[in-house]
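Researcher: Re-running this chain for the archive, since the previous output was lost when a drive failed. Same request as before.
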Amino acid sequence: MNEYYLVFFTAFVLSFLFTPFARKIAFKLNVLDFPKDDRKVHKKPIPYLGGLAIYASAVISMIIFADLDKTTISIIIGGTLIFLVGLIDDIRDVSPKFKLVVQILAALIAVYGGAKINYITNPIPGYEVIYLEYLTIPFTVLWIVGITNTINLIDGIDGLASGVAGISASALMFIAAISGFDFIMIECAVVAGASLGFLPYNFNPAKIFMGDTGALFLGYMLAVISILGVMKIVTSATIIIMILVLGIPVFDTLFAIIRRIINKKPIMEADRGHVHHRLLAKGFSQRQAVLILYIVSIMFGAAAVYLTDSEPLEGTFVIGAVSIIIVVAGRKIGFISRKNIDEDIDEDIDENQDEGNDID
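Model: Regenerated structure tokens:
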């Protein structure tokens, strides 16, 4: 395990050292996040381009420690495409269609490198593996593109996306260790180190944001290594493990889609109904909200690790219990309510701000 600690430490230190330089570059290029709309919870311009430090530390660490085979090279190339489109979007906005095309291309590069979802295992005891066959590539591309964007969607308050990405990568590393996948352990250590090395600068009050540059890159990396590290495991709950590892971004996105359908709004329309907005509206400060979501993410990761080596009946029980908790918690917080989301959240956040809570 000492080698993987070294990989993690190297990526962490590089990310930590590169971030101040990325911050200076952002100021020089005037790549700043101005609080132009109500969805922003910060009150002053914050530099973007933190993703530059995350990307550089991750790629350098992979080149140093990982075997530069077909799979590693495809991950680096695909990740670089995602990084570049995010960088362009941070500097000057690009159209969603263009970003989607690039994401699909990056996903296909990962597929070429060996990242494929070939089958889905059924968590119900007694049922066999379901092979996707000709649906393998479409399903894999859908997963990679979807997860790539979910990390970006939760990047709404200081430290949330980088912390959750680090926790998810760490959970994947434990799963890879249980299954004996050394290559994936290196990749997981790289992503965890790069994410957490950036976190000291991004935790509230943030000195820099990762922007689309970092959020999309981390999402892509997690999507690909989750396929390479989990889909090779023959267990009763393979797809559930993948979802649990990325629990916060996956379920927040799922609830957002359901919420917008219920309220008859476009699925791609932004709102203030995300999990972090809900917690702020409940009276929690940014730091409190982020720490709560860290704990939830750790619980999801622990459940995923447990399922990796569980019996079918145990796995089914855990899946059922987690599903009930998610639905009850979602309804309690109001994720899927029929309300004017933005107005309700705005009123609650403004009220809490007046009472002295720190949401800057």
